[in-house]
Amino acid sequence: LALRPFARLAGGLRGVPRVAPAALGAALRVTPPHRDSSNTALSKMSELSLDTFGERKAVHGVEYVLTKVDQVINWARKGSIWPMTFGLACCAVEMMHAAAARYDMDRFGIIFRASPRQSDVMIVAGTLTNKMAPALRKVYDQMAEPRYVVSMGSCANGGGYYHYSYAVVRGCDRIVPVDIYVPGCPPTAEALLYGLLQLQKKINRERGVLHWFRKNF
C-alpha cells in the first residue's frame, strides 16, 4: 500500500519518450558569443575609457597635492589673524575686554593692529552712521587680500537700538561684505571670541589654489 503512489507515477511516465544522454548534453551546452564588429567597437571604447581614466587619475593626483598646499596655507592664515581696531560704540569695550588678560586672544594668534595695511580682519564694533560709512569702506579697501569682516553687535548687524534713526546705516553689510555676525547688545567677550574661532574654521575650509587650478586647467 505504501508503494502505490510510486507505481502510479512510474505508470504515468511510460509514455514519455526517452532522450539520449548525448542529445541532452548537446542541448544544454552553452555556445560562446560570436565576435562581430560591435564587440570590436566596445573594446575600442573600453581602451578609450582607460586612457581617459589615466588622464583623470593624473589630474586627481595634482589636485591632491594642491589640496595639501591649501591646507598648509590655511593653517598659517588661521593662526595669524590680525584684526583692525575699528571700535564705533560700546561694543568696542567688550572687544578690548576680549584682548585683555582674562581671555587673551593672543594665544590664538589674534593680535590687534592699528594699520589697515597690516590687517586681514576688520571687527566693526558698534553703530555705523552714514557719516562714518565712507571711512569704513576706505579702511576696508586699504586692507590686503584675503580680508575678512566681523560684524559685532546688533547695531553693526542691522541697526540695533538705532534701527529707525535717519543717521544710522541698518547693517554694515550694506557697505562691506561680512563673513561673521556676532549677535548681542553688546555681545560678551566670549561671543566675540567664539565668532573669531568660527572665522578660523571658515578660513580652514578655503581652497584657493585648488580653485585656481580647476579654473585655468
The CA-CA distance between the termini, in Å, is: 87 Å
Structural class: alpha/beta
Number of distinct beta strands: 4
Sequence of secondary-structure elements: HHHEHEHEHEHH
How do the strands line up in the largest sheet? 1-2-3-4
CATH class of the domain at 77-209: Alpha Beta
- Unreliable residue stretches: 1-16
The CATH architecture of the domain at 77-209 comes to: 3-Layer(aba) Sandwich
What kind of sheet is the major sheet? Answer: 4 strands, parallel
Q: In percent, how much strand structure appears in the residues? A: 5-15%
Mean pLDDT: 79
Rounded to an integer in angstroms, the radius of gyration calculated over CA atoms is: 37 Å
Tally of helical segments = 8
Summary keywords:
alpha/beta; four-stranded parallel sheet; Rossmann fold; disordered N terminus; 217 residues
Describe this structure in words.
- Belongs to the complex I 20 kDa subunit family.
- InterPro entries: NADH_UbQ_OxRdtase-like_20kDa, NADH_UQ_OxRdtase_20Kd_su.
- The protein is α/β, with parallel strands linked by helices.
- It has a domain at 77-209: 3-Layer(aba) Sandwich (Rossmann fold), CATH 3.40.50.12280.
- 50% of the residues lie in helices and 8% in strands.
- The protein is built from eight helices and four strands.
- The chain has a four-stranded parallel beta sheet.
- The longest helix is centred in the N-terminal third of the chain and has 42 residues, at 37-78.
- The chain starts with a helix and ends with a helix.
- Residues 1-16 have low confidence and may be disordered.
